[in-house]
Amino acid sequence: MKRFLPILAAFFLAGPVYAMDNLTLSGYLKNETSIRINNMNGDLTKEKNIAELAGEYKIKGDELVFFTKAKYWYDAAYDAREKLDQARHYMGHVQRTDWLRDCYLDYTTDTWFLRLGKQQVVWGQADGIAILDRVNPVDLSEYWLPDMQDIRIPLWMANINYTPKLNSNLQFLFIPDFEQSTSAPIGAPFTFYSYTRYNNWKKAQNAMGSSVDENIYFPAKKFENSTFGLQWSDRIGDLDYTLNYLYGYYYSARNTTILAAGAGGPYSSWKVDRAFKRYQIYGSSFNKSFTNPGPMQGVTLRGDFALYKDEPTYIGDPTTASAKRIARWDNIFWLMGLDRYFFIKYLLSVQYGQYILEHGKEKSKGLPPQQQYPMNAYTYGFADQVENIFTIKLSTQFMNERLKPEILWNFTDDNQGRLSPKVNYEIMDNLVLTLGVHYFYGNLYDSNGEFREENQFYTNLKFSF
Amino acid sequence: MKRLFLLFMGLVFIRGYALAKDLEYFQVYKPKEGMDVNEIMQIENFIKYTKFAHDVKMAGKAYFIDKSGWVREKETTRMRITLDRVSDGIAYKDMVMFTSPQVKGLASLTWTYLDPTRKNDSWLWVPSLRKVRKISSSNDDDAFMGSDFSVEDIITRRFEDETYTLLREENFKGYACEFDKKVYYTNTPSYVIECRPKRSPWYYSKRILWVDKATGGGFYEEKHDFNGRMFMTLFKNFEMFNVNGKGYPTQTLLEGKDLGSGHRTVITNEDIKYDQGLSEELFTERALMMSRW
């Protein structure tokens, strides 16, 4: 916090003294508290306090604008709970330069729009599921529970847009920056089971006198290692569509475990390499509202399609949680969503998607049969070749939008999922209280089921200014 | 043959009447002596959607006031461009950007079509997702952004949605505004018009509307339910803006009262600027995508 306060102060206070009319500041203070409700033991799992401040400075009207946003947080639960000590170094406070959420310069003309600097770019129409929304890496230290804008990790990039005709846009992204996606460390409430299993294995090896040599290989900082993106957006009739292409590194490093020396018993030497692999996304998205009279009037349809070319996919033995190699498969992820108001003020939003792996089993003969299965990266469990995914969301409002209940149900065909009811209540103009529950169910080896012991009741209190 | 001729003449008459009803965009109309109730309501509807202006930009404040007098407040910046374009059937486009802290950044884009049977196209910039989301049109009888006004009160009710009867002509007694404690439209010559929805059942059975004879603005209305009970009043103050020598009747204050709950919504429009030459590029998905908040 101390590091960036002087910078903020210098910018906000000293710089624009002569142009206060051009400066807009806004921000919020927020408390997020959550309690684990399994067995009704009332474990405090989060006591996070957040301060965010954003500033917009119009250098030359709307043509040239500087925008920046800083966010600081600390989680007091990691001070109060011994149980969380192991994860405190990462989960207890904001990390490295993560406090800088946005910092860019906008240049706008009739046909050009340039956004240069640290930012998020969002593609696709799916809600809460990243199909085309993969320009930025993600921070999953609280799984997929926070708002997407807080999950995405902003990157330094050039975002160049050109409008050849009304309602169309050609976007080119040049991203020399690289950050890896992150997840919760051991000891946090939402540590992925794959990580726990790997850590258990490592501890077992150390206990037997074996060594585990871990290496991570980041892409070298070179022009050719940059990420490049292209999106064409247009409208045919009343159908909005995009065509997308992304070429860059997969933001999650993939582990491969190799026995370097020994027989795999005591005093063996293991080598675990983590590497980032290049892949490409070919995709498209659309949305259409039915506006003409008829049975579909009032319905909005939307969809995403993505082909992940050469997506690094874990291959190994799910029964022993051992990732043996990384296959480069051409996997497909598609989703369709439908939204409609019914009765007077109830909005129903339904999504169905499929994540389809290119193969059900690795075809190379270099591995024994039990080590040829694609693995779920979250749990090191078996990954279905076709995963069917559903989300249903129902929301409404009462008391002139002062009280807003909502229920979200995410689930897959493996009888696992998450149920998240919540209610927002506007106490005052700038003060909003949220009460909610996250209820996970399913198999320990499934993405949501792995957190079935982490059901939580939470409260958020946000004061905006 | 005679029947066919009568049918043909009937169709010609109906078509001719329909054409005569269409008002030309970008003109200023006022009620005149001898106009029938449909013509008056055409003008009232025309003024409501500022079809006389090429574009308009304004800052707005909405006050949500409950029975006890406790007030919540939201601020917006609003823009509208009038197109009246046959090629894609678009009548006008609206952009509303919220500027008050709690909802800062939230913005909606709405395209309204010339065809009265078509629903609007709407997009939303959602700050928590940082993306543009196509949204389903709200039902016309839903509350407009949590206010006491319905969606159709503000943006979707068309001339074709109701039938009209002129009840009388009178001098309006005056409206005592609870918000600023002023009395408006005292002794104002008015048409009193009964508006009945064509949809049935609908959330109201009739509106009694007072239209200012001088401007054509519908400034006060009382909504009745199916038991004939009045359940809502809606007041609009119009001020005349002189733009390039033309007088534009403009809504500067709206007060809606729910007589059942005692809740009130007040909307004030300030810093109103007409015909500034706003670009249609400001009313696109890309314009939403450029949002910084």
How would the blueprint of this fold be written?
The complex is a heterodimer of chains A (465) and B (293).
Chain A: H1 5-14, E1 23-36, E2 43-60, E3 64-75, H2 77-80, H3 88-91, E4 100-108, E5 112-119, E6 139-144, H4 148-151, E7 155-162, E8 169-175, E9 182-183, H5 193-207, E10 211-217, E11 227-236, E12 239-249, E13 254-261, E14 269-275, E15 278-289, E16 300-317, E17 322-342, E18 346-356, E19 373-374, E20 386-395, E21 403-412, E22 416-428, E23 431-441, E24 456-464
Parallel strand pairs in A: 6-9, 10-14
Antiparallel strand pairs in A: 1-2, 1-24, 2-3, 3-4, 4-5, 5-7, 7-8, 8-11, 11-12, 12-15, 13-14, 15-16, 16-17, 16-19, 17-18, 18-20, 20-21, 21-22, 22-23, 23-24
Chain B: H1 2-21, H2 37-48, E1 55-65, E2 71-85, E3 90-98, E4 107-113, E5 121-126, E6 131-135, H3 151-156, E7 162-172, E8 175-176, E9 183-184, E10 188-197, E11 206-212, E12 218-224, E13 230-243, E14 246-258, E15 264-274, H4 285-289
